[in-house]
Specification:
The complex is a heterodimer of chains A (304) and B (319). Chain A has 2 domains: 262 residues, MetI-like (MetI-like fold), CATH 1.10.3720; 36 residues, no CATH class. In chain A, 67% of the residues lie in helices and 0% in strands. Chain A starts with 6 loop residues before the first helix and ends in a 7-residue tail after the last helix. Chain B is 79% helix and 0% strand. In chain B, α5 runs antiparallel to α6. The two termini of chain B are 14 Å apart. The chains are: A mainly alpha (304), B mainly alpha (319).
């Protein structure tokens, strides 16, 4: 249905684009070595390959050190979001107690109303979160949406006759929920995880740019972009290099996951459009947008 | 049957909206309660002299029980009274009124350009499905979709403001009257547009491809209905339901984007007010702005859901 033809080339393109920032982020701190003495701020040359930054540190050194926090915080936040969303979504999909489902899912609907960056800034106005705090916050912001995706994907699997058969055979709850329903949703969730990781990387780097979760002089690509902006006229490299690396990281991740999983990542972060599109496309259904407003009010299980 | 379906949908959706609004207010209020230890001491931060701590305690009524303060604050909100800033003592409503203009201008300009651009690109790609133009548009939108505004913005500033000197690099010196200096608006709006345009055009493209392949469009063509009419009068409305939904989600992005773009281009809007208040730990200002932003998001999402429901009424039957 969609133009899947360039998936191979897109995979290669994504892999190449993401390889540079990823290698720098993971291997950079190992290769960096001794930071060396500070010199004058915002200079070019003078033994500094990419010049110096706003406090006179070597920009290349900072670039080598600055990727790790973004990548690790992003990965940790994505994993954490699923750690909460998976059990919540799975239990509310498999359970037959409507009350339990409402109890689990309704508070998340309400959380969805708060814009993600706003929530992070709200907390930052009162606490001073570190990298761990930022990862927790970004994970928290992602939980409601992830739980709904899990709930919807698992709800469909849970409504299949096979689940009824398993129940009648007296299989344990664990085997039905995790062994059958959980496994049936893996592909959808893998696609969602790719999209989510892109969104998380966006949020983590934007928060760092705004000064949340990082020290003001931290070796972090987003912080480098922010702090070195004052010297953009004299010393553009201190800004351009980290900015390009962040662009490469987010763009490459998105292209790569799109090619690998065929995830329609253009679909909004919130709501179930993504899921419906996924299903619609994979089955070539003529009406993939059925049930537009349904996710908000979905009561009970859909009849398959 | 359908009317009553719509009515009950709107009623239930309104209830959810009200619950969300209440939750936003509670969440924002709970923030001061979450302060570790003595809130006044925590908020004084770098200047912990007793006079300042006492002033903060006085200003925020910290000696009274939490529920009384919540009741007062909530009634104040209903009357448009958001409290007073800790840093300057000015009413929070003044801050909001001052910052509203530039932010609204940015958001309105972005939305006004977003619709034609997103729809146009989506339809264009769908018409050339699978060919070079479509692949180009799809790849570029997929790539740009993920890029954070600040990184894109800083690169655009480097190229277009510093190297080519086409536009000013920031809006410093223009005050709140940005409309008089359109050149200063080009880059901010471009940065704000980048992500929503990509997501919208990809959704429209997918919807259009489906709609153009559907039996009813084939039938219309067999009747000799002109191609453009089939495309825009018959296929496009059906491709719009997910786009309407996405437009509301865009509010969330636009909000994030406006905050970042205002910081990047030094525009004195609500985002700048919010960031300054966060930096100064001026909790009443942060709370007031958070309520405004949160309620705005709730209302716009509600509207978009109702529109999306109207565009796909069969959803109520099929679900």
């Amino acid at each position: 249905m969609t133009a899947r033809a360039p998936a191979g080339s897109r995979f290669l393109l994504g892999a190449v684009i993401v390889a540079v920032p990823l290698a720098l982020a993971l291997l950079g701190p190992v290769l960096a070595g001794d930071p060396g003495p500070r010199s004058v701020s915002f200079t070019l040359g003078g033994g500094h390959w990419l010049g110096t930054d706003f406090v006179g540190r070597d920009v290349w050194q900072q670039v080598l050190h600055g990727g790790r926090t973004v990548v690790l915080t992003g990965l940790a936040a994505t994993a954490l979001a699923y750690l909460v969303a998976l059990p919540v979504g799975l239990v509310s999909a498999v359970t037959r107690a409507r009350r339990l489902e409402e109890l689990l899912m309704r508070p998340l609907d309400v959380l969805l109303a708060v814009p993600s960056l706003l929530l992070i800034l709200l907390v930052a106005s009162v606490f001073t979160p570190g990298a761990v705090g930022l990862a927790l916050l970004v994970a928290l912001v992602n939980v409601p949406d992830a739980a709904r995706i899990v709930r919807a994907a698992a709800g469909e699997a849970a409504a299949r006759p096979a689940v009824e058969a398993l129940r009648m055979q007296g299989e344990t709850w664990w085997r039905v929920a995790v062994g059958y329903v959980g496994r049936a949703t893996v592909r959808t969730l893998a696609a969602d995880a790719g999209v989510r990781l892109t969104g998380v990387l966006y949020l983590v780097s934007t928060a760092a740019f705004l000064g949340v979760g990082v020290a003001p002089d931290a070796a972090d690509w987003a912080v480098m972009v922010d702090r070195n902006r004052t010297g953009l006229m004299v010393q553009p490299w201190a800004v351009v290099v980290p900015a390009v690396l962040i662009v490469a990281l987010t763009t490459g991740t998105n292209l790569l996951f799109d090619a690998v999983l065929g995830a329609p990542s253009e679909v909004p972060r919130r709501g179930l459009w993504r899921l419906r599109l996924l299903r619609g496309w994979s089955r070539s259904s003529p009406r993939p947008f059925r049930g537009a407003a349904e996710p908000f009010l979905e009561k009970g299980r859909r009849v398959p | 049957m359908r009317e009553s379906g719509l009515r009950s949908f709107v009623a239930r959706r309104l209830l959810l909206g009200i619950a969300q609004t209440v939750a936003v207010v509670l969440l924002v209020f709970a923030l001061t309660e979450a302060l570790p230890g003595d809130a006044a001491v925590a908020l004084a931060g770098d200047q912990p002299d007793p006079a300042r701590i006492a002033a903060i305690r006085e200003a925020m009524d910290l000696d009274r029980p939490a529920y009384e303060r919540l009741a007062d604050w909530a009634t104040g909100l209903l009357h448009g009274d958001f409290g007073a800033s800790l840093a300057s003592g000015r009413p929070v409503a003044r801050y909001i009124a001052d910052g509203f203009g530039p932010s609204l201008l940015l958001a309105a300009l972005t939305l006004a350009l977003l619709l034609p651009l997103g729809l146009g690109l989506g339809v264009l790609a769908a018409r050339h499905e699978g060919r070079l133009l479509d692949r180009l548009v799809s790849s570029v939108t997929l790539a740009v979709y993920a890029v954070p505004e600040f990184a894109l913005g800083v690169l655009l500033v480097t190229v277009f403001a510093l190297k080519l000197a086409w536009f000013p690099p920031t809006a410093v010196g223009y005050g709140t009257d940005l409309l008089a200096h359109p050149a200063a608006l080009v880059l901010p709006v471009l940065v704000l547009l980048a992500r929503p345009v990509c997501s919208l055009s990809r959704l429209v493209r997918a919807g259009m491809i489906d709609a153009l392949a559907a039996p009813y469009t084939a039938h219309a063509r067999r009747y000799g209905v002109p191609g453009a009419r089939v495309r825009y009068a018959h296929a496009l409305p059906n491709a719009l339901a997910p786009a309407a939904q996405q437009l509301a989600r865009t509010v969330d992005w636009l909000l994030c984007g406006v905050i970042v773009v205002e910081a990047l281009f030094v525009i004195p809007g609500l985002g700048t007010v919010l960031l300054n208040a966060v930096a100064e730990r001026d909790v009443p200002v942060v709370q007031g702005l958070a309520v405004v932003f949160g309620v705005l998001t709730v209302v716009l999402n509600l509207g978009a859901d109702v529109v999306a429901y109207r565009l796909t009424p069969r959803a109520g039957v099929a679900a």
